[in-house]
Design goal:
The chain is mainly alpha-helical. It contains 9 helices and no strands.
């Protein structure tokens, strides 16, 4: 059910750097696919990688098959299919494969701001994820030396929460940095508050 939003509310979302939540986009597709991977944890590796894109496609269709959602679905589909058939390749190759398929379909998409935002942010997120994870792991390295019997359940959950919080912060910082120039160009504003707002 799509509804209009007032001009003032739209400007507030732009100024806060959270305008992307108003459309079903990569954030929502990623959350849905992540939830499906968690719910289907008991399935074999290949079955999961074939079923999750199918379920995500149904979700994408049910939400109106908006272009941002379709771009995100195509990236997920490319990644899952390559992994399901045990083809070597990194996540960045899946992103470039999805980008290439979309440009073959319509080369003029490259001029679309949404297309530029989607692929620029995802390329940077995928490219920096291993380094960000390594740095966050280094910050918590001391905790890994503790004998498991000395770590309480509460302490374990606290460490996991802090680890994912720092990793999320790194992701928000990367996406903000990657989209900074585009935001300045298309919207004429700098949105430093987007970092805590998105976190």
């Amino acid at each position: 059910c799509q509804q209009g939003i007032s001009y003032e509310s739209r400007k507030d979302f732009i100024r806060s750097g959270t305008i992307h939540i108003l459309t079903v986009s990569g954030l929502h597709i990623g959350m849905f696919a992540g939830a499906m991977f968690l719910l289907l944890f008991f399935l074999p590796f290949r079955a999961k990688l074939l079923i999750v894109p199918f379920l995500t496609l149904i979700y994408t269709l049910a939400t109106g098959l908006q272009m941002p959602a379709f771009r995100a679905f195509l990236m997920l589909f490319c990644w899952c299919i390559l992994r399901a058939f045990l083809l070597r390749g990194s996540g960045i190759n899946s992103v470039f494969m999805a980008c290439s398929l979309l440009l073959l379909w319509n080369p003029f998409q490259i001029q679309d701001a949404g297309f530029q935002y989607s692929f620029l942010c995802v390329i940077f997120l995928v490219a920096t994820a291993p380094a960000a994870s390594k740095w966050v792991h280094l910050a918590f390295e001391k905790d890994s030396w503790r004998p498991p019997k000395t770590v309480s359940h509460r302490m374990f959950l606290q460490q996991k929460f802090l680890f994912w919080l720092w990793l999320s912060l790194a992701g928000c910082l990367t996406a903000w940095g990657a989209s900074f120039a585009l935001t300045l160009f298309y919207q004429g504003i700098s949105v430093p508050f987007a970092l805590p707002a998105n976190l």
